């Protein structure tokens, strides 16, 4: 799911930034290529459970806390979509006069 991948990347990036770490530092600590971490943070790649565990260890963040944060973000996105009504407007038929309040 693209939504989950994007939100996971956002959470990991936020955690990294809060710790004041660079991608290079996380890469060295987690033993994962800098480019791959960057792609995960941008929501372009999926992180395996093993890779995610390594990133969380490097960020000194419990895996459960990261997943809970992502879950909360997913719930907010779902609520926003559910609360956004989709209005369907009909077009006037040829020759039909539409009244204006102006």
UniProtKB/TrEMBL annotation:
Return the CDD domains for the record. HTH_XRE
> Record's superkingdom?
Bacteria
SUPFAM superfamilies reported for this sequence? lambda repressor-like DNA-binding domains
The record's section on PROSITE patterns has:
HTH_CROC1 (PS50943)
Q: InterPro entries from the xrefs?
A: Cro/C1-type_HTH, Lambda_DNA-bd_dom_sf
A Pfam family reported for this protein in Swiss-Prot or TrEMBL: HTH_3
HTH cro/C1-type domain ranges (all copies): 12-66
- Coiled-coil annotated residue ranges, if any: none
- UniProt name for this protein: HTH cro/C1-type domain-containing protein
Q: Which organism is it from?
A: Nocardioides koreensis
């Amino acid at each position: 799911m693209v939504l989950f991948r994007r939100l996971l990347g956002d959470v990991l990036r936020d955690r990294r930034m809060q710790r004041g770490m660079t991608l290079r530092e996380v890469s060295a600590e987690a033993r994962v290529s800098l480019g791959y971490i960057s792609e995960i943070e941008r929501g372009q790649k999926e992180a395996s459970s093993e890779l995610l565990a390594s990133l969380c260890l490097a960020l000194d963040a419990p895996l459960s806390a990261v997943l809970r944060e992502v879950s909360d973000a997913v719930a907010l996105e779902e609520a926003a979509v559910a609360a956004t009504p989709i209005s369907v407007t009909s077009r006037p038929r040829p020759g039909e006069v539409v009244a204006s309040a102006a």
